[in-house]
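PROTEIN DESIGN WORKSHEET
SECTION A - STRUCTURE
LENGTH: 364
TOKENS:
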């Protein structure tokens, strides 16, 4: 699956530094607004300790991780929805991503300018959220303006859909995001086709000084309280520390993390949190060429999961031989798993679980 998470935030909050650490793309990260003009895309492997074990158990020659894409979207400012800064271009970039990773400054540093003159994460969140809401209001208003004349001319479909968009407009006008809009499954497609910004899941990243990685600070506490109101998560990261970690050799990274009192890097925690926000899971396949991790959404059935491997697998799907990673790991080999009756045969209605190791049978 080609899924994208857009890194957004005010200028100078550390977005591009985090993006560089994620993708090693070498994007400029200077201390002035609008350094990033075009959206930069980095394809990032998803860390998963299980994959190497699947490779070992299956006797595959290499391990190929699944990936997720991160997009570095230039800093928004107040008035972006009306074209301030480079607002229209940036908001168009956000419209194309699947989830929003909102990077929020939670560190004090007089040498790094803040566009509003002081550090206040809740205010910064509200600035960005307001711009997204205003842009969505504009989009819904345009749809209403299109439907109203058609409805007056007797267009039955336009007349039927108009009340839905009036209700959505009122919902947004009250400061509510599209994600919380009560809508029937029958009408969902009508809203989806607008690609509204506040319909996307959001994850907050608190960018802190290196000394605050473990315990956080008052700014992080305020951001967490705000995130709790929105029923989402906060990942605490020090962009500068992550930039240093990204430059180290793999064997040196754990020593650095140990010194910081961390088990995993902030970027690794960010990737997994993004997975959670997007309701994604991982399944595995393995053969004589390699062991592979694949990304699917929770609730995906076996034929559609097979289609991630190859379209022919979905079209000609017959069944899937399946074992959960934990059972495979405990058995120690495919033969031992088969002898123990741990391998299951699943059909078209099987809902794939995170950690399933699968082999698909299909008609050519």
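SECTION B - SEQUENCE
RESIDUE ASSIGNMENT:
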């Amino acid at each position: 699956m080609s899924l994208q998470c857009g890194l957004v935030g005010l200028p100078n909050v550390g977005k591009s530094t985090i993006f560089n650490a994620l993708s090693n793309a070498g994007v400029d990260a200077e201390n002035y607004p609008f350094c990033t003009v075009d959206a930069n895309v980095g394809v990032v492997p998803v860390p998963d300790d299980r994959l190497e074990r699947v490779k070992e158990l299956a006797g595959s020659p290499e391990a190929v991780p699944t990936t997720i894409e991160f997009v570095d979207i230039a800093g928004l400012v107040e008035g972006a929805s009306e074209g301030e800064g480079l607002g229209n271009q940036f908001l168009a970039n956000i419209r194309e991503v699947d989830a929003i990773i909102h990077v929020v400054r939670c560190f004090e540093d007089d040498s790094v300018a803040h566009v509003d003159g002081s550090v206040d994460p809740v205010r910064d969140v509200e600035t960005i959220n307001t711009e997204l809401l205003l842009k969505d209001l504009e989009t819904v208003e345009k749809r209403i303006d299109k439907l109203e004349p058609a409805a007056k001319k007797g267009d039955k479909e336009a007349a039927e859909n108009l009340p839905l968009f009036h209700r959505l407009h009122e919902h947004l006008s009250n400061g509510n995001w599209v994600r919380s809009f009560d809508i029937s499954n029958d009408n969902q497609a009508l809203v989806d086709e607008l690609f509204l910004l506040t319909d996307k899941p959001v994850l907050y990243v608190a960018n802190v000084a290196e000394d605050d990685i473990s315990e956080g600070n008052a700014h992080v506490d305020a951001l967490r309280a705000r995130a709790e109101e929105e029923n989402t998560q906060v990942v605490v990261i020090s962009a500068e520390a992550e930039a240093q970690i990204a430059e180290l050799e793999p064997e040196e990274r754990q020593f650095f993390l140990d010194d910081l009192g961390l088990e995993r890097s902030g970027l690794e925690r960010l990737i997994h949190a993004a997975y959670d926000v997007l309701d994604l899971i991982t399944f595995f396949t393995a053969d004589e060429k390699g062991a592979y991790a694949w990304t699917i959404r929770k609730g995906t059935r076996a034929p559609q999961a097979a289609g991630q491997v190859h379209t022919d697998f979905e079209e000609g799907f017959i069944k899937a031989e399946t074992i959960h990673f934990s059972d495979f790991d405990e058995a120690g080999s495919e033969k031992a798993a088969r002898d123990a009756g741990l391998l299951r045969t699943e059909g078209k209605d099987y809902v794939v679980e995170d950690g399933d190791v699968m082999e698909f049978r299909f008609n050519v």
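SECTION C - NOTES
Residues 299-362 form a domain with the Ubiquitin-like (UB roll) fold (CATH 3.10.20.30).
The radius of gyration is 23 Å.
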